Every structure is written in structure tokens, then in C-alpha cells.
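Board work, copied verbatim: TauD/TfdA-like domain-containing protein
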Amino acid sequence: MIAKTPVEILDPEVAALAAKYDVYEVHKALAARDVANAYPLAKYPEYLPSTEHGSNPGYHGEFDHIEPGTRADPAMPNLKGLPGYTEDCIRYITPRLGSIIKGVQLSKLTAAGLDELALLATQRGVLAFHDQDLKDQGIEKFKEFGNHFGPLHRHPTQSLVMAPRTRRLRSVTSHERKEAHSLTECRYVQWHTDQCHEPQPPAVSMLVALEVPATGGGDTLFCSATRAYDTLSPAMQKFVCTLWSENSSKLISDSSAKIGGPVRRAPVPIAHPVVRVHPTTGQRSLFHNPHFSTDRIHNLKEQENIAIGNFLRNHIENSQDFQCRVRWAEGAVVVYDQRVVFHSATHDYEPGDRRHLLRIT
Ligand SMILES: [Fe+2]
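↓ predict structure ↓
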């Protein structure tokens, strides 16, 4: 018997889309595994991942950026003027971090309202909006929202959205790397902020839930980076404020290459301060990403690097008193400020359950 190639056993819906959009690198193997695992057809196939390799992409260097939250009216008249808004719409996930907001549609926000949304995301770290119609508003609407918060980023290694003109939207699916990761790691939780290998990493970002696991799971975890700084002793705060670290996409590039994934550009080292200052609030926050991109802290000896790096990592990982988790539902939209929170995925859902999110950053 001749084994079928991945192309031959592609989900027919995925194959049709690949032909339609002339995508030259569809995620063939993963789509094939979809079929093998009897995943149902995707509800949003146009946003399934493409692992096109390509080249240089989206290393957008330094650019002028006006923080939208600095333009916002602190009274938030546009956000609070949305139809259905009442003070009862908002519930804190924890006193220190995160709000759940029901009863309003983000798609109705004006530009001034998006500025206020950015300010609220900075204040609360993470905002979870339920029952949103944004997922059905189309690519241009996603881009409009994303571009309001800064230039959209094209990721050097991760899956992008398959449909055309969307190479700066990231498709986050249930199967992506989950199985490969489980071969080498006992657990998946990886606290980080996105793309800190860039000279100007993302600011306010969004996740849109297209499909969520029927059996639950796949929550996103958040940890307050401002609390992580505030809870240090004054002596330690003073010390970490002097530190800079080297960041690059080498770790994620190596791990992508290991499973045959794309590496769209060579890793470039970027120095970032270990403590950053928020442009809207002036708040300080820890900026340390050992899982994804922080290679080492400058000017420390080897043993000091290990000790300080481990301390910061443990401080972020083990501080459940300023962490929260967001449970997904279809249509939910999460807005988070990458300068204020770390986040991590969880991989606790069942094989065959599709989790499909769109990240706009
Ligand atoms: Fe992330």
C-alpha cells in the first residue's frame, strides 16, 4: 500500500482554501493530523494557520508610536456610552488584575473609544469581553482595530492566517506545537510577553475566540508585570532598574526549525531594560522573558546571571496573588496590555477539541 502524502489527506475544506488563495505553504502536516484525529471542520477556515516560510517579514525596526491611551479621556465617555453599558457590566477577575465586561459590543467603538479601551487595558492589564460580534466582522475590521494600537507585526516563526492580505494576523490553533512540546516538556506553562525580540515589542493586543474546546480548557493565564515589580523590595527595585537583558528570536527559531516550521528571518539580538516604564501611566513593570527570548542579563557574571534570572522567573511563575486566568467562550475578545501583563497558554484540553483564536498585535 502506498502511503498517502499529507496533501492527499488534507482536510478538503483546507485544500480548497489553499487553492483559492494560492497559499504556497499550508500547514499540511497539521491539517492532515486534523483529519487523522477526526477534528470537525473549522468554523472559520479562512483563519486557519498557514506556515508559509517566506522571508523577512515584519521586522519593522523602530517606528514612531503615539500611545493611544495617552489620548484617552480618563472619564471614558465613548466606552461608557456604548449601548448596553452600565456599571454592572464590569466584574473584576481579581482585585489586582483583569476585568470581565458583558453587554457591550467592541465593534461599535469609535477611534476615541479605542483610545479609551487602550487606557482601560493598561489600568486593568487584561479585559475579557463576552459575546462579541467582532469575530464575524472580517479581516479589514481586525486590521482597523489592530492598527489603531500600533503597526501590525508579522511573526518570524509562528503560524499566520491563511486568507490573503492577512499575513500580519496570527492564527492560534489547538494542535499547533502542542504535541511536539509534550515530547520534551512536562508542562506547557510559559510566562512571557509577545515578541520581545523586536526593538519595539507589541503594546495593546487582542485575542478573538473563533472556536473553543467543547470540553473546556485552554484558558489563558495572565500575571501582572507591574505588581511583579511593585512587590520587590526597594533595594531589589533599584538593582533591577539598572539591568538590561539580551533578547532574540533564537529560542523560538530553533524550536520552530526542530519541527520543520518556518524561520522567516535570522535571529537578531536586541537589548531591553529589565524594567520598563509605561508611556501612559509611568508605572514600572518587570520585562523578563526567559522562556521565549531573554538570553542573558548584561554585565552579570555567569553565576549571577543564573541566580538573578532564576529569581525573576520564579517570582513571575509563583506569584498567584497577582495572577488570573481567562476562560474562553466563542466570540469572546480579550484585550491586554503587553507592558502590564505576562501571559501563558494552557494545554489541558482533549485531543480532537479545536481551539482556534486570532491574535491581533
Ligand atoms: Fe503569547
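The two ends are 46 Å apart (CA to CA).
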